[in-house]
Amino acid sequence: MKRKQLVVGNWKMNGSLSDNEALLDGLTRADGLSTLDVAVCVPYIYLAQAQERLGSGSVSWGVQNVSEYDAGAYTGEISVTMLADFQVSYGLVGHSERRSLYAESNELAGIKARKLLGVDITPIVCVGETFEQREAEQTFEIISAQLEAVIEQIGLENLGRIVLAYEPVWAIGTGLTASPAQAQEVHGYIREQVALLDKVAAGAVRILYGGSVKPDNAEKLFRQVDVDGGLIGGASLNLIDFLTICRLAT
Ligand code: PEP
Asked: Which residue from 10, 93, 116, 236 could staple onto 121, CB 3.0 to 4.6 Å apart?
């Protein structure tokens, strides 16, 4: 039996009060979402709006980043306790845009995951290789290093409390997507790595696929045995496309 699917939208730095309102209200009104988990990771500044609009409905809200510090002189940063004030359910860590544009390391992704767990926010840990790394047959090695750094920070006992997302860097925002077989190969590998440490956690952990998922390619990706849903960037900004992708995951 498949694990309960999870589809998460990553709005990145997009949105406005009025555009968000239409999107959030559309999600709140949508039917056909009761058999899966759905969330949207919004820019920090729209958290209050997400909380107000999604309220106690079935769609959750999350963030795209968080500070590794608790409080103090960190101008421009947002702490995990601030996120908890807004009933945030999920936080992305290690997204490839954070890694490449803001030089975030494997270790930093791990520290952020640990901080989120400290306030019961589920980290969505993003891992994935660049095109060059894939060409050089380093995909598994890169992903192992990314995973190990996170596990070192959160501890084995918390393996069952995270969500993983395989996001090949070459597929994010490019229109290129991993074939269903390529996605399954890496998802299977990730699950095997987790199983070496904790068999129960490996059976339960959800591994999302992300990278140019669209209504026309989602179904075959979601059908793969180790793909437990998706992390959706561009297509999550369009209500119809996002809802279609969510429904294809059920
Ligand atoms: C992402 O931002 O995590 C992502 C997968 O983006 P896109 O769907 O646009 O490739």
From this structure: 116
Please state, in angstroms and rounded to a whole number, the distance separating the CA atoms of residues 41 and 112: 16
Q: Is 94 in the pocket of ligand 1 (CB under 6 A)?
A: no
Q: Which residue range forms the structural domain that includes residue 70?
A: 6-248
What are the φ/ψ torsions at residue 211 (nearest 5 degrees)? 140, 90
Give the closest residue to 44 by CA, choosing from 97, 80, 90, 83: 83
CA–CA dist 43, 105 (Å, integer): 21
- pTM reported for the whole predicted model: 0.97
Inside any domain, residue 1 = no
Q: Is 211 in the pocket of ligand 1 (CB under 6 A)?
A: yes
Taking CA atoms only, the protein residue closest to ligand 1 atom 2 is: 233
Assign residue 199 the CATH number of its domain.
3.20.20.70
Digit-coded pLDDT (tens) for 129-166: 999 999 999 999 999 999 999 999 999 999 999 999 99
The ranges of the chain with pLDDT < 70 are none
Domain count for the chain: 1
Q: Is 167 a catalytic residue?
A: yes
Alpha carbon nearest to ligand 1 atom 6, residue: 233
Ligand 1 centre distance from Cα of residue 168 (Å) = 10
Which pLDDT value is given to residue 175?
A: 86
pLDDT at 178: 92
